[in-house]
Each structure stands twice: as structure tokens, then as C-alpha cells.
Write a structure and sequence with these properties.
The protein is of the alpha/beta class. The protein contains 13 helices and 6 strands. It has a 6-stranded parallel beta sheet with strand order 3-2-4-1-5-6, sandwiched between helices.
Length: 311
């Protein structure tokens, strides 16, 4: 019998944090974050990381585990999340995976680990020097010569992924395309809940409210602190929405409008991803919170009961 796991997913500003905390009070849950930016230390306001007060004593995993200056991959996430699941199980509790990074959730549930590859910093610098001397396309052509299948799925200008594919070849002696990213069978018996919006303007208003709250909570100061770190422009952590918009804005209104727009665009992509998740159960996020909580609670109670076994 596969271990049970519950997922609560949805676009940014959909209310995942509040609902997850309420569910964790009702069921024996501990929470595993599935957010690709909340893993970074010092990146709190821009990522809407739940504060210690908001967590209300509920154990959370996969928050504040990475240095913004260092690369962090989906395989790193899977390894850490699996360790968290084991710890939660040792407590006699059930993992509640909460987040908006669909790729992370898919990788955790279905596979997604290249194994224990060790990175060679000197080889990464060798590749970086190659790019500086010969250009991004030349590096991609290097990958194409070694692993045509993998190269066909990576844009020549996506230097980070091209480098990682070359590193996999160097580290394992095998082509990156030879690694089965997803397992044949899911790791868990899962209930996958997704917060949805029939009226996109409702989500837009929630995004605007969240952005205003971020500014009130010190987003300007946090953006300045991140800028002072001197991170490389291609650092994965700088994909977080909320810093570059402020660094390039001419005034506060322009910064606010840019942040709302970027967040709304990201929410649209998230919505599209979750719409394609097989067997996902939609939850109407526009409902009054008590009704939403009861609906989610009924689904979870049925799933966790012995008769709810799906394997």
C-alpha cells in the first residue's frame, strides 16, 4: 500500500496558506511547501512566505533551506521533500503539500530525480568560460553533439539548462535524455486539490491586495537587501517576482503596476498548468471561507479514511 499524501495547489494569492493552516488544525497534517522561491533564505516578502505567526505552530518543511546565491534544482527539491515526508511519517502525521509550483509537485508525486549527482564547480566554471569565449549557441551545439535528444528540448539561450545537461553527462557518464525523469508508478496515493476561480477578476483583485500588502510589509527594503548580495544575473533565485520590477521602476506606482502585471501573468500560467493535472479535484476559491474549508475537509476525510484507499 502506498503512503497517502494530500496536495493543496493553486495560483498565487488564491488563499492556499490560510486554507492549509485551517486544514492542519482539523487533520493530522504537517505541511511541505512546494514553492520554488520560498526555499530561499532572506526572500520572505516577495515570495509571500508564511510568517511564523501565520504558521500558528504547524510544522512547515522546505522553507528557508537554500542560499539565494547557489543553484537549486527540482531534483534538490525532491530529495529534500522526500526527507520531509519521511520525518512527517515518523511523527505519525500525514504530509500536506502546499504550493503553486506545479513542476515541483509533479516531480515529488511521480518521480523526478537524477539521483545523487555531485556537481564539480571547476567544470561549471569551465563551461562558463566556454560561453564567454564562444557564445551560448556554441555551448548548445556542444550538447547537441553529445546528446541530440536533450538538446532538442532546450533552447540554445537557456544556458543554465544546457550546462546542467552537460554536467549530468560528465557526472554520470550517461546522456541526460537517458534518465527517466518520471517513474512508471506514482510514489504516493494522493488527493490533489486545486483552488480555482471562475471569475479571473476576483483573483486579480486578490493579487492587487497582496502586492499592496507586500509594499506595506517592507518589500522595498527586502529588494534592496537582495540587490546588495551581488547575485549573478542568471541566479535561479532572481526569477522571483518582486525584485527586478522594483530595481527597474522609475517610481513607486510604476513598480506596483509592474508587479501586479507580472504576478497576474504568472497566476495565469499556474492556472493553465493545474488545469492539465489529471485527477485533480477543483475547489471553488470564490466561496465563503467556512464553506470552502468544509468542502475540502469532507474530501480529505473521505480520502484519509480506511475505505478511502485508492490502491
Amino acid at each position: 500500500m502506498k503512503p497517502k499524501i494530500v496536495v493543496l495547489a493553486g495560483p498565487t494569492a488564491s488563499g492556499k496558506t490560510a486554507l492549509s493552516i485551517s486544514l492542519a488544525k482539523r487533520f493530522p497534517f504537517e505541511i511541505v511547501s512546494a514553492d520554488s522561491m520560498q526555499i530561499y533564505r532572506g526572500m520572505d516578502v516577495a515570495t509571500a512566505k508564511p510568517t511564523p505567526e501565520e504558521r500558528e505552530g504547524i510544522p512547515h518543511y522546505m522553507l528557508d533551506i537554500a542560499d539565494p546565491a547557489l543553484p537549486f534544482t527540482v531534483s534538490d527539491y525532491v530529495r529534500g521533500a522526500l526527507d520531509a515526508v519521511k520525518e512527517i511519517d515518523s511523527h505519525g502525521k500525514v504530509p500536506l503539500v502546499v504550493g503553486g509550483t506545479g513542476f515541483y509537485i509533479k516531480a515529488l508525486l511521480e518521480g523526478g530525480d537524477f539521483g545523487e549527482c555531485t556537481r564539480d564547480p571547476s567544470y561549471r566554471e569551465e563551461l562558463a568560460a566556454f560561453v564567454r569565449e564562444k557564445g551560448e549557441t556554441a555551448l548548445w551545439e556542444k550538447l547537441r553533439d553529445l546528446d541530440p535528444a536533450r538538446a532538442s528540448g532546450v533552447h540554445p539561450h537557456n544556458v543554465k539548462r544546457v550546462m546542467r545537461a552537460l554536467e549530468v553527462i560528465r557526472e554520470t557518464g550517461k546522456k541526460a535524455s537517458d534518465h527517466a525523469f518520471y517513474a512508471k508508478e506514482p510514489r504516493f496515493d494522493s488527493l490533489y486539490l486545486v483552488l480555482t476561480f471562475a471569475d479571473r477578476s476576483v483573483l486579480r483583485r486578490r493579487i492587487e491586495k497582496r502586492v499592496d500588502a507586500m509594499f506595506a510589509s517592507g518589500l522595498w527594503e527586502e529588494a534592496a537587501a537582495i540587490a546588495s548580495l551581488g547575485l549573478p544575473s542568471d541566479a535561479t533565485s532572481l526569477q522571483a517576482i518582486g525584485y527586478k520590477e522594483l530595481w527597474t521602476a522609475g517610481d513607486p506606482k510604476e513598480a506596483r503596476d509592474a508587479l501586479v502585471l507580472r504576478t497576474a501573468q504568472y497566476a495565469k500560467k499556474q492556472t493553465t498548468w493545474f488545469r492539465g493535472v489529471k485527477n485533480a479535484v477543483p475547489l471553488d476559491a470564490e466561496k465563503e471561507f467556512p464553506l470552502l474549508l468544509d468542502e475540502a475537509g469532507e474530501l480529505i476525510a473521505s480520502f484519509l479514511s480506511p475505505s478511502g484507499d485508492q490502491t
